């Protein structure tokens, strides 16, 4: 009987009951909604040192930036999977300006050192007025 139950479960997983895809869709829907609503957005994990550096930099330049802590978010794992599959970004932080993924901490630090990050964020400061 136990073997039959295991076989039924395995067949159910192979058949694709939509649960995994439904979760992925929830993650993508939440991400799209956040990206559409917040001009400056950081996907982060609360314990990550690189995320802390990027958040400090971004919120210093744009205090209204939205920070999403994926490790504290209900569908954070699904959202991080979307970062991997849709944007080919495998780590946190993931910084978005508008609907464009700018990159992670090293990317925003480099843009800041070149004076480009402030110019990029200025577009959104001016739009807020």
TrEMBL record:
SUPFAM superfamilies associated with the record: Thioredoxin-like (SSF52833)
Leader sequence residues: 1-22
Pfam family, one: Glutaredoxin
Protein name, per record: Glutaredoxin domain-containing protein
Organism listed in the record: Rhodosorus marinus
Glutaredoxin domain: residues covered: 40-102
Gene3D superfamilies xref list: Glutaredoxin
Gene Ontology CC: cis-Golgi network; Golgi lumen
Source organism, top-level taxon: Eukaryota
